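User: Fold this; C-alpha cells only.

Assistant: Input:
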Amino acid sequence: MNTSVMLHAAATPTAPALVLRPWCLEDVDAVVEAYRDPTLGRWTSSRPENEAGGLEWIQAQQRGWAVGDQLGFAVLEAQSDTTAPQLVGNVVLKDVAPGKPSAEAGYWTLAHARGRGIASRALETLTTWAFETFRAEGLEVMELLHQADNVASCRVAQKSRFEFARTLPAAPPLYPLDSHLHLRHASP
C-alpha cells in the first residue's frame, strides 16, 4: 500500500485547509499529548500514555498501511506560510479489502480543534478518497460506529452524509455500551 498518500481539504471562508497524511514517527509526542485529553480517552479504546506507548500506536498505524487493511491519517490544519501545519486529529479507514463491499471509517479530534467542523471535513475527504480508490475493488458502503451517548460523533456522521442505520446492543468487553451504526453508500 502506498504510504505517501496525501489528501487535502480546501480552505473554507471560515476554516483553513486540511492536510491528511499517514502517521510518522515524528508524531509520537503529539499522539501522547492528544491522548491525555480525558474526553478523547472516554471514546477510544487505545490510550498511549508515554513515548513508548505513542511509538507502539504509530507503529500500529504503519503496520495497517503495510498490510493495507487499516489506513490511518494524521489530520493537519494549515497555518501561515511560515508555520508548520498543526495536528488537529485523526481519520482512519478500517477493514478495507478487495472484494469486501464495506469498510469502516473512524476519527477523533484534539480538544482545541473540536466544534470547528474539522472532523466532518476530514471524514468527508477520507470517504471521497476511499470510494474513488476502492470502488473498483468492490467498496460500496462505508460504516461508521460510535457509542450511542456520543452526541458529537452523531452530528459529525450526519454532517458527513452517513445515515443512521440502527442501534447495536452493547457487546462487552470490546463494546461496553450500545453503539450507533451509520452508513454511507457510494454514489451511483
